[in-house]
């Protein structure tokens, strides 16, 4: 990735945007866990300093105490939900565009002196000497295979690769400019045509890279996924090139986005019940119990998703069952708070 960024001469804002696209996709994954352990830590401090006992002794019920935590959890749940619905799919799409933009001509970093370069379709390039990333070439040999089977051979004393790019539009034009050489082509079956030039520009790539990759489920908004899920397999394949595996991934992505927001609220509730360490300083290892809950949750989650992939159970059941399990655990510990205070 570093070589691509250097070879393309991209701006600092382009790199920061690329990092931002990657970072945004991790927010729905990391936020529920962060809320979970931060709630446990907060309630542990309240318990260890006897502040929770003082609040209960002052007449505050556990329902009054938990309300501020649930309000914050609801706000975060709402935020994660909307991130999953539109912003993150757009971010994934932009990330893919930028990577395609970098690799489209970043492959030319493979041009090395004394070696044949064949990564451009129907083009064979050889240079006796080449600078890093192949921008300046000496003693260039170029073999072109054109439509119709015609071939051209170009020799030149030197050449250079010229980039014309628009980072905002993700458009890219790459031109190989050759100096002091000749072009040999076959004018007929018996005759060869030779053209001598002092400067010759050969366009290698030009176009918009936004349409050169297939849209996958992570790049589609929930509205678009909903439309796809209502299609029959043939229509989904014709419009989006989705096969059976892609359709399963689309269904999973659709329901997982909803579950990702829901678990943010559930983790906060469970963290509240686990964080209160007991009556008057008598504590328990809340962090270890919380970690165990996470291991069990994700173990059940991925096991059920694997079963759903075999079409044994519906995807919504596989996605939401672990969340309901955590809810049950949270209710159990919540009811025990009456015995601890």
Which helices and strands, and how do they pair?
Elements: H1 2-8, H2 12-48, H3 51-57, H4 62-106, E1 123-130, E2 136-145, E3 151-166, E4 171-186, E5 192-208, H5 222-229, H6 233-240, H7 244-275, H8 286-309, H9 315-340
Antiparallel strand pairs: 1-2, 2-3, 3-4, 4-5
Helix pairs in contact: 1-4, 2-4, 2-7, 4-7, 5-7, 7-8, 7-9, 8-9
Number of strands: 5
What is the average of the pLDDT values? 81
Determine the strand fraction and express it as a percent band.
15-25%
Share of helix, binned: 55-70%
Compute the number of helices: 9
Largest sheet, spatial ordering of strands: 1-2-3-4-5
- What's the domain count? 2
Q: What value does the Rg take, in angstroms?
A: 30 Å
- The N- to C-terminal Cα distance equals 56 Å
For the biggest sheet, the summary is: 5 strands, antiparallel
N-to-C SSE series?
Answer: HHHHEEEEEHHHHH
Summing up helix and strand content along with how strands pair, one would put the structural category as alpha+beta
Silhouette: elongated
Poorly predicted ranges: 206-213
């Amino acid at each position: 990735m570093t070589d691509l960024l250097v070879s393309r001469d991209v701006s600092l804002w382009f790199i920061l945007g690329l990092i931002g696209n990657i970072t945004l996709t991790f927010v729905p994954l990391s936020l529920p866990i962060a809320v979970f352990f931060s709630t446990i830590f907060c309630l542990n401090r309240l318990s260890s300093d006897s502040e929770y006992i003082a609040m209960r002794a002052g007449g505050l019920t556990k329902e009054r105490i938990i309300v501020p935590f649930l309000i914050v959890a609801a706000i975060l749940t709402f935020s994660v939900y909307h991130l999953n619905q539109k912003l993150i799919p757009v971010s994934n799409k932009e990330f893919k565009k930028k990577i395609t933009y970098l690799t489209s001509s970043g492959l030319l970093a493979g041009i090395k002196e004394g070696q044949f370069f064949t990564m451009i379709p129907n083009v064979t390039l050889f240079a006796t000497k080449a600078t890093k990333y192949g921008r300046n070439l000496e003693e260039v040999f170029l073999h072109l295979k054109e439509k119709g089977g015609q071939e051209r051979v170009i020799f030149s004393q030197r050449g250079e690769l010229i980039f014309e790019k628009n980072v905002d539009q993700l458009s890219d034009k790459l031109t190989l400019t050759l100096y002091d050489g000749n072009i040999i082509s076959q004018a007929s079956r018996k005759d060869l045509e030779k053209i001598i030039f002092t400067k010759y520009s050969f366009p290698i790539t030009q176009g918009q890279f936004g349409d050169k990759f297939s849209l996958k489920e992570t790049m589609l908004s929930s509205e678009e996924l909903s439309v796809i899920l209502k299609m029959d397999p043939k229509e989904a394949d014709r419009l989006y090139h989705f096969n059976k595996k892609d359709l399963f991934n689309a269904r999973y992505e659709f329901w997982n986005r909803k579950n990702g927001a829901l678990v943010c609220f559930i983790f906060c509730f469970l963290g509240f019940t686990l964080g209160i360490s007991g009556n008057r300083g008598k504590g328990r290892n809340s962090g270890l119990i919380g970690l165990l809950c996470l291991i069990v949750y994700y173990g059940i989650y991925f096991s059920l998703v694997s079963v759903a992939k075999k079409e044994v159970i519906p995807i919504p059941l596989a996605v939401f069952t672990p969340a309901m399990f955590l809810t049950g655990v949270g209710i159990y510990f919540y009811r025990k708070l009456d015995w601890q205070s």
